[in-house]
Amino acid sequence: MNVPVDHLDHRVRGGWTPSGAADAALPAHASRWLSARTGLTPVDTPVAPDSGLPVPESVLPAPVRAVLADIVGAEHVLVEREDRLGRSGGLSYVDLLVRRGAGELPVPDAVVLPGDPDQVRAVVEACASHGVGIVPFGGGTSVVGGVSALRGDKVAVVVLDLARLDKLVSVDPVSRLAVFQAGVVAPDAERMLAAHGLTLGHFPQSYERATLGGFAATRSSGQASAGYGRFEDMVEGVRLATPRGDWRLGVSPASAAGPDLRQLAVGSEGLFGVITEVTVRVRPAPAWERYEGFVVDGFAAGAEVVRGLAQAGVLGTVTRLSDPQETEVALTLSGGWKTAAVKGYLRARGIAEPSLLVIGWEGATREEMLTRRRATLRLVDGAVRLGVRAGETWRHGRFSGPRQRDALMDVGMCVETLETATYWSKLGDLREAVREALLRSLTAGGRRPIVACHISHSYETGASLYFTTLVPRDPSDPVGQWRRAKEAASEAIMGLGTITHHHAVGVDHAPYLASEIGPLGVDVLRAIKAELDPSGVLNPGKLV
Asked: In sequence order, which residues have a C-beta less than 8 Å from that of residue 432 and are 6 or more positions away?
């Protein structure tokens, strides 16, 4: 089920499911299974009404508000309670817990909606001169605190909502380049490109809400990255508004003119400037697609299959391996796994620990797509084929996870994700270390956690691991329950993999950054920020 999102309203409403849309309600069989499997006693934990959440009065000085109104128009400087609350935080589990009354949100003092890159630059310069913090805001999908309105030592903090920067600036079909304003939401980008027979090919789970500027600022990776690359691979140019002025980067497909400064913008999380335009590499939209499902016996065997595909250069456009725990959860919640027929079918074929492998191929022609499929299947050894139906089931539900989380939270589940990546030789050790840390932290009070994992992105040298945790919520300390588990998992990752493969650093991962890039690396980032943002107004409290 793909629920349309109002792309002109990025406000967070306490969950992923848009206001007025049908919820992804938890089926009765799924609730019974979760109760038996985890010890869940379903409780009603709805999102609190906006009127029930604490919102402090705005402290934005009147002279600053007047300056901002002169730049963008008074109607685009919002200080009403509802508008400020709607841009308070992102969509992490903890963010959404607070929406259920479990704490307080850092609420901005105003929301500013510039209409073009020049207005963004003027707003940034005005805020810098008045000591007002600026939080760039796209789709509000951060799950690591990246859009939290932290004030720090500033007199006030405003959210710079880029929703009005929603244009396709230009298309160069000969060079296969497109220039987008940073506030364009991913589905809109695909619709705009489709009119030219093109696609960006970037489909993370946040696809329905996230913006192209957000993809660039966080080094996003999509479900089809095996075919199209990570977002930083797509970025050919970038335009930023900094307190020091406008900055444009990217003039050719390759250059030896010193370090590639585009990479200072890509992954900078709004600390060095506000991304206002992104030039991206695009490709012809595929005419043929085919998705299939396979089952491999055990995660280790499945990982070996995926490694073989990656190192032979024959991955599908999408190649995704779920471990036995995720396979069980996904197919149980969808209603298709616990049937005797399916279990018997797999047992008869020697599958003791089913791990679901989904592979998708694309092509401009049917023969091109089938040629890629044949190259992949030559190396898919020992797998039981489930066919197109299993693959299409995954494809049609590929963006439903956040809505399922809404439904699970409504009945009292703690449900959250984290991700990492490492080299192939360390992959098994990393998975076990994180699983053990999460299970150890979350097993208490009769609660029996499920820790599920999948390989979401694969490379010649290694792969990412994406974990999902399900456990009944601790009503006495719901925020602390997850934060302790996340800390345990993060400590387990150190020395084995990266603290984040595609969720970015934000607030949550900042304590671990020095362990990954070294104290000298942190000093380098701080020096760059000091040069571009001398007064430190850009996204206070994030990254470094």
From this structure: none
Check for a shared fold between 168-284 and 288-398.
no
Residue 113 annotated as binding site? no
pLDDT of 311 strictly over 70:
yes
Q: How many CB atoms lie within 10 A of CB 181?
A: 23
| Residue 526 CB coordination number (10 Å) | 14
466 is catalytic: yes
- What CA–CA distance (Å, rounded) separates 204 from 318? 11
Mean pLDDT of 489-496: 97
Higher pLDDT: 9 or 311? It is 311
CATH fold label, 288-398: Alpha-Beta Plaits (3.30.70)
Tens digits of residue pLDDT in 133-149:
999 999 999 999 999 99
According to the annotation, is 269 in a ligand binding site?
yes
Kindly state the tokens that stand for 397.
């539900």
Q: Sign of torsion, CA 139 144 150 152?
A: negative
* Class of 168-284 in CATH: alpha beta
Q: How many Å apart are CA 253 and CA 233, to the nearest integer? A: 11
Report whether 297 contacts 382 (CB < 8 A): yes
The answer on whether 142 is annotated among ligand-binding residues is yes
CA distance 261 to 366: 40
* Strand 462-472 versus strand 450-455 pairing type: antiparallel
- Could you tell me whether strands 132-137 and 156-161 are parallel, antiparallel, or unpaired per DSSP bridges? parallel
Give the mean pLDDT of 106-113.
Answer: 97
Q: At what angle do helices 427-442 and 299-312 cross, to 10 degrees?
A: 140
Cα angle 409-415-419, degrees, rounded to a multiple of 5 = 150
> Does the structure show a pLDDT above 60 at 162?
yes
Average pLDDT, the chain: 93
| Residue 450 token pair | 């499920």
- What value does the mean pLDDT take over residues 418-439? 98
222 annotated ligand binder: no
Per the document, the length of the chain is 544
**Cross-strand bridge partners of residue 455:** 321
Q: Where are the domains of the chain?
A: 168-284, 288-398
Integer angstrom CA distances of residue 219 from 214, 459, 503: 8, 16, 8
518 annotated to bind ligand: no
- Sign of the C-alpha dihedral computed for residues 473, 478, 479 and 485 taken in this order: negative
Residue that the structure tokens 């760059």 belong to? 528
Q: How many CB atoms lie within 10 A of CB 102?
A: 17
Residue with tokens 């720090």: 152
pTM over 0.90: yes
Which residues does residue 291 pair with via DSSP β-bridges, in sequence order? 360
393 annotated to a ligand binding site: no
For residue 345, name the pLDDT band (cuts at 50, 70, 90): confident
Beta strands in 88-234 (DSSP E): 110-112, 132-137, 156-161, 168-172, 177-181, 198-199
Of 207, 291, 466, 512, the active-site residue reads 466
For residue 442, give the nearest of 405, 404, 476, 472 by alpha carbon: 472
Q: Phi and psi for 61 in degrees, rounded to 5?
A: -60, 140
Inter-residue contact 209 to 185 (CB < 8 Å)? yes
